[in-house]
Design brief:
Layout: H1 2-14, H2 21-34, H3 38-49, H4 54-71, H5 74-89, H6 96-108, H7 120-143
Helix pairs in contact: 1-2, 1-3, 1-4, 1-5, 2-5, 5-6, 5-7
Length: 144
């Protein structure tokens, strides 16, 4: 699950063809919670930078989506979606292409399409919820 979420977060950052430092910081902070190393992040980012057009983009994210669909776990899928939203909010504006990508991903994963707003309090609430869910997931995995 952690690699799928990391990949979808990076995809959210690059979908607008702009790698914003604020979005990158959000990803780096949250992937540490997931247990993704800096090396793994750099590898995924390097792959993302090699994307050349929409078809390449879809080919790159499809395995992550397929794995989440196969798991059929609404909690994990919701966590992936929330993490994508956090990335999109990092620069205080959600671009149309980011919103479209997030909403399409929600539909693909069988989740309700989120209403996206530019309100800062929503981003902050999502950040707290994301961190809480990741910590719970890690604690549950450690206990298994």
């Amino acid at each position: 699950m952690k690699h799928e979420i990391a990949k979808l977060m990076i995809a959210t950052m690059v979908v607008d063809s702009d790698i914003d430092e604020r979005e990158s910081r959000v990803i780096k902070g949250n992937i540490q919670i997931l247990g993704i190393t800096g090396i793994e992040y750099d590898e995924l980012l390097s792959e993302a930078k090699e994307i050349n057009g929409f078809d390449d983009f879809l080919d790159w994210i499809q395995p992550a989506l397929d794995n989440l669909i196969e798991r059929n776990n609404p909690t994990q899928s919701s966590l992936a979606l929330a993490s994508m939203i956090l990335v999109a909010y990092a620069d205080d504006k959600i671009k149309k292409v980011e919103a479209d990508f997030i909403q399409s991903t929600a539909s693909i994963l069988g989740l309700p399409r989120p209403t996206l707003s530019s309100k800062k309090w929503i981003r902050d609430a999502l950040a707290r919820e994301f961190s809480s869910r990741i910590r719970k997931k890690i604690n549950n995995t450690d206990n298994e």
